[in-house]
Amino acid sequence: MAYLNVQRTALRLGVAPHTVRRWTAAGLLPCTRTAGGHRRIREEDVDALAQRLGDGRHLEARRAREREVETLLDTSLALVGRLELPDLLREIAGRLTLLMDCDFCAVSTYDRAAQSVTMLADFDARGRRLPDAGAYPLSKFPLTRRVLEEREPAVVNVGDPAADPHELRELVREGDKSLLMVPLVYRGESIGLIELMDHVRERRYSGQDLRICTAVAGQAAVALHNAQLFAATRAATREIDRLCRQLDGVADALTGLTAAVDAADLLDATARAACELVEAVSCVVSAGRLTAGHAHDVREGSGDTQACMDDDERGDAAWSGSVSGAELLTVRAAGREGVGMTVALSRPSRRGEADVLRLLATGAAAQLRRIG
Predict the structure, then answer these.
(1) pTM of the prediction?
(2) Is CATH 3.30.450.40 the classification given to domain 258-371?
(3) Could you give phi then psi for residue 90, rounded to 5 degrees?
(4) What is the pLDDT of residues 151-173, one digit of tens each?
């Protein structure tokens, strides 16, 4: 009993491979699946369907096109409704691996200025996410650059001696047989790349296949842009919420500073408050000849205050509360009794944190004047 794959069945019936996949899904054309999930169709069933179509093949082709339009509409609705980037990437990969009968789908972003591509996610046909390859320079992959610059898809087969040697090396290294690259185009500019890999066979995509894949990629580009905007907006909202909490913390800290009985007590309280406000690992506060420090273990929530001493007592001994690899942030309040502070962060400083610390330092300076 002879079996045909989707591509040979499409050629026998004179329709697009996507139409064959639709017919098998609808039960019009019986099929079995290989261990890898690929469709296999009995040659007898193909011949029987070809005979039934007969003169009605043109009508069936028109119906197939209508179903393809429905597929695009369904895909568009599915993609637009997903604003969470991980969910969107999985949906894009799932739709395209099914639609193009491929084994893997990778989605990447394109940085025109840096001339590089960064992979966002790579999925297999079963929806399992594979390890991301990260960023790579386009100088090593001229065909990929051409796809992005000319905004046209390209196919690479491992058995094609005229294929781009850089892409061939990657195919051989990954054990793939075929690669289809389709640019993600938004408002006339490439913003990313879709790569569809076939692990089993070389592919000869029809013009209709490429048009459908390009149309889906266009929808994916819009959805990806919207998801990135959504993520940026949500991140900005979180930053605003954080700043509001820190400003509330400054108000509470300034109230606590009024309980200080002398300059040493004041600087010690200021150092503690600064560590809590920005979750710093350490802080040094100075005013004139006096200095105080506080080391805060963010993981354990504990702290250790360094004794307050003047310049004569300190001599050349520097305060040793710094942490290897930490980022230092230094601020100073203006005025004759200017209070300065340096905090060590175990992460990059965030927007507005220097202003929050400067506000605390200014309040400490005002309280220092009150104490006299």
Answers:
(1) 0.61
(2) yes
(3) -65, -40
(4) 999 999 999 988 889 999 999 99
